[in-house]
Design goal:
5 helices, 12% strand, 198 residues, 2 domains
Length: 198
């Protein structure tokens, strides 16, 4: 290779000289339009270049943060939905299929004999959908206003035989018959639980 073809040295880069800080201005920190900032490092002022983010960088940062927050929200929502059971009421044939496919709890005000037939239908549909039929909890209110303890016990036995495992005592809005609830809770329900589950 001839000397004429040997590339010469590139242009010399300008040397950046540190700025002299006048006495009395040692505590000042200044940023110029060029992005240079003067910082006190403890051993004297140093000249440092600070890159200023442009609009594309800001938009990208916002999008990334938004994506991270969306992922966190979806994960937390999924955990919550795994913990919260789905309760569906209804007795029509179409609703029984919906219950069999999606519900964790079925609640209905049918009487015990009708309830037993509807529950069998729901569990048959659940098996068709590949679900465990017994995974659907059967629920119903069993207490009515002005009901004697004997009538209450009879309803509990009938619904237990029909497949119900969640029985509700609803607070009456007009408080009629509410004075009988303490006796049910203290005496009748423990005896029924021992009889039916013991």
């Amino acid at each position: 290779m001839s000397r004429d073809n040997v590339p010469g040295p590139g242009p010399e880069q300008p040397r950046v000289e540190p700025e002299i800080i006048p006495p009395g201005e040692e505590s000042r920190t200044r940023v110029g339009d060029s992005g240079w900032i003067h910082l006190n490092s403890g051993s004297g002022f140093q000249r440092v270049y600070i890159a200023r983010p442009g609009l594309p960088s800001i938009i990208l940062t916002v999008l990334i943060l938004g994506l991270i927050l969306a992922i966190i929200f979806l994960v937390l929502a999924g955990i919550v939905f795994l913990w919260i059971p789905i309760l569906i009421g209804g007795t029509k044939p179409k609703m029984l299929r919906v219950i069999a496919k999606h519900a964790d709890i079925w609640d209905s005000g049918l009487e015990a004999d009708e309830y037993a037939g509807a529950l069998r239908t729901i569990r048959e549909h659940a098996a068709e959908y590949g679900r465990d039929p017994d995974s659907i909890l059967a629920s119903t209110p069993v207490w009515r206003q002005k009901m004697s303890e004997k009538e209450f016990a009879g309803r509990v036995r009938a619904f237990y035989k029909a497949g119900v495992r969640q029985m509700l005592i609803q607070h009456p809005p007009d408080r009629v018959g509410i004075e009988t609830i303490p006796g049910l809770v203290e005496r009748v329900i423990p005896e029924l639980r021992a009889e039916l589950e013991g």
